[in-house]
Amino acid sequence: MLPFASCLPGSLQLWALLLLLLGTAYPQDSEEPDSYTECTDGYEWDPDSQHCRDIDECRYRYCQHRCVNLPGSFRCQCEPGFQLGPNNRSCVDVNECDMGAPCEQRCFNSYGTFLCRCNQGYELHRDGFSCSDIDECSYSSYLCQYRCVNEPGRFSCHCPQGYQLLATRLCQDIDECESGAHQCSEAQTCVNFHGGYRCVDTNRCVEPYIQVSDNRCLCPASNPLCREQPSSIVHRYMSITSERSVPADVFQIQATSVYPGAYNAFQIRAGNSQGDFYIR
Length: 280
Known about the structure:
It is built from 3 helices and 19 strands. By secondary structure, it is mainly β. Strands 17-18-19 form a 3-stranded antiparallel beta sheet, with no helix packed on it. Strands 1-2 form a two-stranded antiparallel sheet. The longest helix is centred in the N-terminal third of the chain and has 16 residues, at 10-25.
């Protein structure tokens, strides 16, 4: 009982006691203290639940690529090939070539990714990283005149013995007679042919012929043995390539008559046992 209630009449004391009890049971409405509505960073007050709720910062598009909402915060993430910039929100390209990209030969950085390329003479494997040698010789039989040899990243042309490589693909005969790379004696003449040479006797004239030049033999008209023989014989050597298409003219010869009405006859005297050559 309140101290001042003892000074009141009995009925008034009873009413004062009732009012005191009613005031305790039904307090007056009052506003929530400010401390209840103040939330920490990353949260906001929810009047329905009367609690602080998390703010979904991702809905404000703070991140350039991907946003992951966290309780009271958020985190930005980048797509593959990128990394977070200094502000932790924007994404910058990653140069995979400087970070040990798995390219076997050459690496080219591009926006958000990288490309592997191969050196000349190689092709990119199906895995996109390794390089395989290209066998250029298997693509064409016309790369080299004689033989094509595949090498790592390239190919080379080879020539048979007696030939030398002309430029990079053609073969040229080595003239051993002109270069002096022969073994002929002083009594012999070097005759060059495709892929080699031959040493022949310088004087091939047989009685009754006499040698009048390096390759010409003359039968003197004053010699009775020359009456039924050609007046002269000329020795010439020529190199004939093999596997050439036929028919083909190998050489041409023309006779000039010294005497009117003279009869000239041509024939293959040796080396035609199988009838491979004919005169027309």
